[in-house]
Each structure stands twice: as structure tokens, then as C-alpha cells.
Amino acid sequence: MNSCAGTVLMIRPAAFRYNEETAVNNYFQQPSRISTEELQTLARQEFDGMVQQLQRAGVEVLVIEDSPQPVKPDAVFPNNWLSTTADGRVHLYPLFAPNRRAERRSGIVTLLQRLFNVERVNDWSFLEENGLFLEGTGSIVFDHSGKTAYAALSPRTSREALMLLAGAHGYAPVSFDAQDAQGRPIYHTNVLLSIGDGFALGCSAALVNEEEQMQVQRRLAESGHEWIDLDFAELEAFGANLLQLQNRKGERVIALSQTAFDVFRPATKNKLEQYGTLLPIAVPTIERVNGGSVRCMLCEIFLTPKAAPAGASPLSQ
């Protein structure tokens, strides 16, 4: 499976606001004194700017408008409930916060089935009934070349759910405990680890168990990844919340947070630049208020597009 997607799905927010239900274990979130209306305006501006930057870089972007009702404050983060694989599967994931579960809209799945070759939809949301959660590529960071699924265990990432999902992919599950600089559990794996073609970027100091840390780094080295180590300051600036993509020319592009780019040490930038053109994107309101950054806003589409009329893109149908 190609580790770099050339197409991403993004959800344009209709009701962005601070989400109290996710703030209980997402310590990146900060309440805002800005009005809900202004927050929504700022979030949309940041979203639209990100879409434009990706498109200018040659990445295909499928933009879907969020439905205004029911209110979904975190709709801008589709990677937590949706992922796709090149063999034609769509996966729907169990979410921790009850007010996020309405994000799993059947109409979005239907659209994917219309535009792409979808062989099967695996709906794992039933696990919510048993208090088991696994929030998509927020909870799991896939090493496609090494067929391994990495996950930091947390209230949003259950070991049992990881075992089921990894088995369905035919991947080996590797779980570990991770904490921030204050000793608090890190809510999502993709804020401390990113895996691309030839590199793995992460904060080794966040892996509190030395044996688990060594296992993660050893497995990644065995599958051909150079380890790029982040410090806690880089982690807290969403340094690991990035995604390597492929543009229409087949060139590698790395979408990342402007916040992270501004904090990265020169050595971090220099190493990362070897694996693609860096594309810093400013989404400060989305980061500050709801605690997710650029990678969280991107759902990779590995599905094969259906045939389109000559000269037309399936995404324009």
C-alpha cells in the first residue's frame, strides 16, 4: 500500500466551538473568550486557507460541508471517525465523546461509494456500547511499509479495539503508554508520532516505558524509517501532527502546522525537508480551541477513483 495519499477529504465546519466533552482529556484545548460566531468565522477562514494551500501544492482535496444540525463542534477533524485503504475498504471508528458521534454521516460514506471503488464498509462504532474507543488515525499511526499499527493507550484508545482493527488490516499492533511534560496521558497518538515514507518523527521522551520506547524505535528502523526526535516544546506546538502527501506530479509534500514550523529546531527542519517540501499551514484558532492541528483535519483517501468522463476528475462530479 502506498504510504502517501494524493487525495484527502476535509470537512468544512458549520458549528465550530469549544468542545467541553473532549476537553476532559485533551490538554491542548483552551477555552476562548471569543464569541461562538467569531470562532466559527475564524475556523472557516483557517480551513479555507488550508484547502487553498494544499490545492496550490498539487494535492487533490475533496471538501464536504458539515451539516448545521446536529451541532458538531469537532467536525473539522474527520480523521478520527473515518479512514480508507487501497483495497477498497472504508473504516468507521468508535468515538469517546458522545457529541462527536453524529460526525459519522452516512451521506459522506455514500459519496465515497459514488466517487470511488468501495468494496466494504467496516463499521466499528458498535464498540462504543462497551466503552471501547479507537479514534481513527488519531489513535492509530500506521506504518504501511512495515504493516504495523502504533497506538498510545488513553481514554480514547482502547487496547481491545486496537487489536480488532489491526487484525482487520492484517497489521501487527504495537501499543504503549505516553505522557506529556506534565505527566498527563497524551490523548491521541498522532500528536506525538508521525510516520512517512522513509521517516518517523516523534517525541521519544513522551514514551514513559523505556522498553516500549526501544521497541517502537527498533521496529521503525527495521521497516526503513529514520527516527527524527522531537522535544516536548516541539510536541506541544503540534510538531508531530503532520502528514506526508503526494501531489499530482508524484512529489512529496509535508503538510504541517505553522505553529510547529515556527518552533522546530533547525536540525528538525533539516531532517524533515529530506522527505518532502514543507508546507506550513496556519490554523491557530482550531489548534487552540479544539486541540487538533493539520493532520487531524485530513482524512487520507487511498481508494481507487471510479472512471470519470474524459478530461474530468471524479472529485468534480
TrEMBL record:
<dbReference type="GO" id="GO:0016740">
    <property type="term" value="F:transferase activity"/>
</dbReference>
<dbReference type="Pfam" id="PF19420">
    <property type="entry name" value="DDAH_eukar"/>
</dbReference>
<keyword id="KW-0808">Transferase</keyword>
<protein>
    <submittedName>
        <fullName>Amidinotransferase</fullName>
    </submittedName>
</protein>
<dbReference type="InterPro" id="IPR014541">
    <property type="entry name" value="Amdntrnsf_FN0238"/>
</dbReference>
